[in-house]
Write a structure and sequence with these properties.
The protein is about 25% helix and about 25% strand. The longest helix is centred in the middle third of the chain and has 16 residues.
């Protein structure tokens, strides 16, 4: 005989005053919680990879200068170009390379920027490659 023989076959108690908890709510009470708010986001941010800013050699700079000169000569016809450029990350050092196709519409020699269409403004110093 065990210690529970007197209660083992009794029916499960159901309260007259409190409704039964739904299974989904019952499971939620055992869900983990974040003791430190934002910790998981900080870990994910630390683990996110970024590329370093390009350091072009003289040959690459000469090639980019030649291609920019060709764009300047044909800017009135809005030549179609494919630009690969570096975008600095706003939260940590480094960034990523992006490639965009569009029509070159303006070169601003004061701000040192190339415009593609109306909306895209790319700093000339960030350009890593130009395809025409």
């Amino acid at each position: 005989m065990t210690d529970y023989d007197d209660i083992i076959n009794l029916p499960h108690h159901t309260s007259d005053h409190h409704p039964r908890m739904a299974m989904i709510d019952r499971a939620a009470q055992f869900a983990p919680f974040a003791a430190v708010v934002g910790y998981d986001d900080a870990i994910a941010e630390t683990g996110r990879f970024t590329d370093s800013r390009p350091v072009a050699g003289d040959d690459k700079l000469n090639e980019l200068d030649r291609k920019m000169a060709a764009i300047v000569e044909t800017i009135e016809s809005h030549p179609e170009v494919e630009i690969t450029y570096f975008v600095a990350d706003k939260r940590k050092s480094g960034g990523q390379y992006k490639t965009i196709k569009g029509n070159a519409t303006k070169i601003d020699s004061v701000e040192h920027c190339l415009y593609l269409g109306r909306d895209v403004k790319i700093a000339i110093a960030d350009i890593a490659d130009i395809k025409m």
